[in-house]
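Predict the structure of Histidine kinase/HSP90-like ATPase domain-containing protein.
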Amino acid sequence: ERGVRLAIEGVDSGQDPFAALMREIQRFTGRQKFSDDLTLCCLEMVDQAGLTALPEGAAPSTLAGPAQWKCVYEIRERTLGEFNPLPLLLHICMEVPGLRRKSGEIYTLLSELYNNALEHGVLELPSEWKFTPEGFGRYYSERATRLCTVSGHYIRFSFHHEPKPWGGRLKIVCEDSGQGFDFHNHAALQTTQMAQSGPRYAGRGLILLKRLAESIRFHNQGNRVDIVYDWYVFNPNKGVGHG
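Done. Here is the predicted structure for Histidine kinase/HSP90-like ATPase domain-containing protein.
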């Protein structure tokens, strides 16, 4: 933070602050080549008092677009190991303008649903491997190996969106061809057990789902999960803007 601040404070009038910052980054790193992209962004911070509350009536553009629709998307066989459907699924949901403000939460929901179905349902990878650093490495090594030999499996997403007076409701059903799990006794789905087990890599996805979704329900032998996600233009109880 100090280096960024000094680089920007040293910029003369008319100079590009991003260019100056990149020069400072190159100097600081010894001008080594990066193996990944560098992203720079500029954020303007304002006082809370300067923020404008949402209007009492929703602007037409806020609710324009597909309001009531259903969609089923299924990915099967070797395609499970060759194709990532998450960008496509997110794009479908983002056709609803009101959901675009929640793209991060929607992507998190889709990602956790898909990865749980793929890794634990289709590939049958045990969560316990991620309890230790050694097991964590083994988990992802075995994941790559099993993805190359996927056969006879599928993951199916069903979407249903409907408008509500306060915004809308997105229902997501994710079903896979795996053997499921004992969701009745899973620690991440039991509040008391979750508190006692302490922080672990395994099970955090289910905790995220519980926090983001209005409701989450498992069916069959645990290989089908129903998510309800509500988004708000207005708080249904108070009628004021809700982020």
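The chain has two domains: 2-48, 61-232.
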